[in-house]
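Sample entry (350 residues):
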Amino acid sequence: MSPQQPASPSSSGTAVPSARPFLDAIGNTPLILLRRASERTGCQIYGKAEFMNPGGSIKDRAAKFLLLDALQRGLIESGGIVVEGSAGNTGIGLTLAGNAIGLKTIILMPNTQSMEKQRTLRGMGAELRTVPAVPYKNPENYVHQARELARSLAGHAHGVLYADQWDNPANREGHVASTGPEIWTQTDGKVDGFVCAVGTGGTIAGVSAYLKQQRPDILIGVADPDGAGIYNWVKHGEIAASGSSITEGIGQNRITGNLAGARIDDAWNIPDREWLPVLWELIAHEGLYVGTSSGINVAGAIRMARHLGPGHTIVTVLCDSASRYESKLFDPEFLATRALPAPTWWAASA
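Predicted structure, serialized as tokens:
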């Protein structure tokens, strides 16, 4: 049975029929048994196929609930403007949902993000502004610039929404209402662990809140790339990071509003050299053409499985498609200059 989703109201409380087909298609994604990871660990490891959402990623869920919340509260209506700072996927979800509702979308993105995501956003009709990638503490960070742009547009006749996926609790609550119940139902309540990387923190905070309510002893874990500080925060109580990663959209160095209070039990630091072979295996042997965060998530699930021991059921998230990272993942020079393992099939075809 599918989790119940809220209706799509406008600021006047009436339905928004034009938005329903897109919004209704978000969620209820299947769980896919990851055969190789399961065989290697003696556990049942499943990936939730979030790349099957209409906008192609798990961030469609955040976009849906951020917009529904704003519509319900009368912050915006058809004809209004949505502004967000995004590494790409939330921006894509907001743009498509906004198109369905009749909203203009302005996205600010670090210029280090893949050209695929930049082209996708522009192709969907978003106004995309790329800015230099600087740390969050810098006032020129893309998140701060998005917030200030939204403030400068205040007073628009149909409303202006700074979506704020980082600190807006509607992101986390969307996963409490949808992702968590779906996982519980799809595993018949037999899930022993859930693990994923942290970007905004909405997924892990919302899923853990729901699953812990159903079963307090379920293990919730973070898969953290190099350059991110959540591993050290979970393990030692403070943000600290070293190194860097080619992943995009994950790897957090602050406690966002959505992450604050998340019920996390453990964490694993997973460098690029560990998760990339897992990603190549997913593509070559599981038929799953998924992106960088999916690689680190499955590597995290393998770590959790080895921690728990054989016989357990573990769920992670297959966030989006490798098609959004092809210019990095399948560029021999890019990988070689970082001493990263190339796809296994390249050697076979040489």
